[in-house]
Amino acid sequence: MAARIDALLPQTQCTRCGYSGCRPYAAAIASGEAQINQCPPGGKKTIEALARLLHRPALSLNPLNGVESALRIALIDEDRCIGCARCLAPCPVDAIVGAQKYLHTVLIDRCTGCELCLPPCPVDCIEMRDAPEAAIIEPSLNRERFAAHLTRSERQATERQRQLDAKKATAARRKALP
Ligand code: SF4
Ligand code: SF4
Ligand code: SF4
Questions:
Q1: What is residue 171's predicted lDDT score, i.e. its pLDDT?
Q2: Residue 62 confidence (pLDDT) above 80
Q3: Which end of the chain is more exposed for a tag (fewer CB within 10 A), N or C?
Q4: Atom of ligand 3 nearest to the CA of 98
């Protein structure tokens, strides 16, 4: 059931439902822990779809989770961006491109408006703007991009750990030299 619920969610991973992503929220609905009206990006349409699936009455969106609005996407003020790259890792769909010490920019056809890139920016140079009408993204595409993001993050973490282990081993060998 959690998978069927998850299939109806927008897959922005924005955490506004109070859970760490769409799948954990789906699991919480399936277990009875969460209500069906906690997803602002999905709004009325998603609540109605969940109500139909679960044979429950459709509720109004819980205002504690936010308000339903048209898609807004992130825009980086390139004059103020210092190229620190702190916004890259938090983006669940890899919609930001750039590298350390280089300007960063948002791919508007990927951005889901989750706002997860805003808090890490040390110079506050990312703002949300109304999206062009065409910028509505299919949840299935968001899901695929999030899966790719997780795979890449795990690969990078493994590589970092491998490098750290190699450094430790080298330091231990040096220490053991007479
Ligand atoms: S899109 Fe909806 S279900 Fe997914 S994390 Fe955001 S609020 Fe939660
Ligand atoms: S660019 Fe920012 S707002 Fe857009 S999807 Fe990535 S983290 Fe979310
Ligand atoms: S976090 Fe802000 S300053 Fe750093 S690269 Fe991203 S947009 Fe630029």
A1: 87
A2: yes
A3: C
A4: 5
